[in-house]
Design goal:
mainly alpha, 3 helices, about 95% helix, rod-shaped, transport, transmembrane helix
Length: about 160
């Protein structure tokens, strides 16, 4: 009856025949095809996700650049506004100082004129009193009184 190797080969061929008859190769091929399809679908999905991520990244980069440009514009406008406010504040301060200086000068001029008027009035009063004493000592009759009254009224009229 033959050797053991021959029987192993015959059993192997019969086994392979049963495996082919049952359809195991089709099932293995089908399972491998399904797995390949699933892997292909996952790769396509991953590729789509990658493209979407790249689009999002590009969009965020663009938005970031726009935001940086907007920030630069805002900062530049703020600097210009601050410079304008500083110039306006300086001008207002100078105007305030000028008004205060002018008001002080006017007060000083008014005080000077009042002091001069007071000095003139005091001098006039002193001159009138001195003239009254001198004239009353020299002239004792009614003529002295009339001259004195007329002189006093003239002095007061000229001083006021």
């Amino acid at each position: 009856m033959g050797s053991a190797e021959l029987w192993v080969a015959v059993a192997f061929v019969i086994f392979l025949g049963i495996v082919v008859y049952v359809g195991v190769p089709k099932k293995i091929t089908g399972a491998l095809d399904q797995r390949a399809a699933r892997i292909k679908a996952e790769l396509d999905h991953a590729r789509a996700l990658r493209e979407e991520a790249q689009k999002l990244l590009a969009e965020y980069k663009r938005k970031r650049e726009e935001a940086e440009q907007d920030a630069k514009v805002i900062v530049e406008n703020a600097r210009k506004d601050a410079a304008g406010f500083a110039l306006a504040a300086k001008a207002k301060a100078e105007e305030f100082v000028a008004r205060r200086t002018k008001a002080a000068e006017q007060k000083i001029a008014l005080a000077e004129s009042q002091a001069i008027a007071e000095v003139r009035a005091a001098a006039a009063d002193a001159a009138v009193a001195a003239a009254e004493r001198v004239l009353s000592a020299q002239v004792k009759d009614g003529l002295g009184d009339s001259l004195f009254e007329r002189g006093v009224s003239e002095v007061r009229a000229k001083l006021n």
